[in-house]
Design goal:
Radius of gyration: 21 Å
Helix content: 25-40%
Largest sheet: 4 strands, mixed
Distance between the termini: 5 Å
Shape: globular
Bound molecules: uridine-diphosphate-N-acetylglucosamine
Strand content: 25-35%
Length: 421
Amino acid sequence: MDKFIIQGGISLEGEVVISGSKNAALPVLCSSILADGPCIYTNIPRLRDITTITDVLSTLGMGIERPERNTITIDPTNLVSYEAPYELVKSMRASILVLGPLLAKYKRAKVSLPGGCAIGVRPIDMHLKALTKMGADITLSHGYVMASTEGIKGATIVFDTPTVGGTENIMMAATLAQGTTVIQGAAKEPEVVDLANALITMGARIEGAGESTITIEGMSSLSGLEYEVIPDRIEVGTFLVAGAITRGDLLIKGARAEHVVAVAEKLSEMGVVITEEDGGAIRVNGKTDLRPVQVETVPYPGFPTDMQAQIMALACISQGVSTITENIFENRYMHVPELMRMGGRLEEKGPTVIVHGVDQFQGASVMATDLRASASLVLAALNARGVTEIRRIYHLDRGYEELDRKLNLLGAKVMRERGGL
Ligand code: UD1
């Protein structure tokens, strides 16, 4: 397994270009199942999670090509299987996103129950309940979701708590349903809106994406398309923190400022100077003493759970006591003991972590546990006095395109050591 060896204490300076959004690309690629013609997707990041989903789609018989580094073409017309097998789904929960489109278009699907990041129990009960209401017959057998239908029908679906993947799965299924579907309590994340835009480009009739009620009028068929995926707002947020935690000065290019408002607000409260520049760029200047912060993760447009670990690393070197509360997932604090190994002073109290600021992290040997937790360790290492060794960085490779190369272009010293434990 690869590891990073990071020489810390260097201020990052320069320009970084943001990749396409992983969490937008995954559902958008799955939506190609619904198309009757070729699909061309651009701005797709080169990541392990993307390879996993294209492997799932290939297993179904879809023709996948990568004519350019960030372009994927899909020919969805020759399906030979309706099964997403355990070997692929186990490493990524988002594989469940083939369920809705397979059922809507081919009336059957067999999808392994998902694995993914070890951040608590992450059920898919809301996906299954909604699809059942839309006419699917679903059983769980030997670790698989076995689903069939005589035809997916429009329905009113009410999510008591917003679910990103659930909203996406149902929205996809509803595009080819008989009749109209109304999703109440829908997730409002930009990735949901991006999927809706891709589906609309295919001819789907969708209104309200980005709001809490989405209405989808079912169609009899959808066409192929050419579509560019939005930039990755979590990568933007991570580089904002990288600029702040190294007391650096970065120009983050290819970003959508409107997608990172909650993160930028919290960083500004801490004293970090963030300015929107022309042409979709954001400048972050961290040459300042940091104030402590109070953060609670909430669904979009609030502060994202996928930035909780990164802002916690920053809070560790602020002057005072911060509190960070995780409301979306339980067990999403696996970075806490690792940050403590690096000199962070943290106390975990149920869903809240109390952070007592220190001057600087210290280099140490630490272990990456899940995707965003790993990012927080890289950020702490960039700040640290001395050398940090981060093992198991395959978690990072699932979600950050060429993080080591991008950081090194900004002056960081991140070395990737291949192989080993
Ligand atoms: C997506 C993101 C993930 C992000 C999360 C929350 C992708 C590929 N992943 O994950 O990075 O952290 O949104 O912003 O886009 N839940 C249930 N039953 C369900 C579905 C969800 O109880 O059927 C719970 C989950 O356990 C969690 C909460 O609802 O506590 C939100 O989960 P959800 O929004 O569905 O997250 P994902 O779509 O899996």
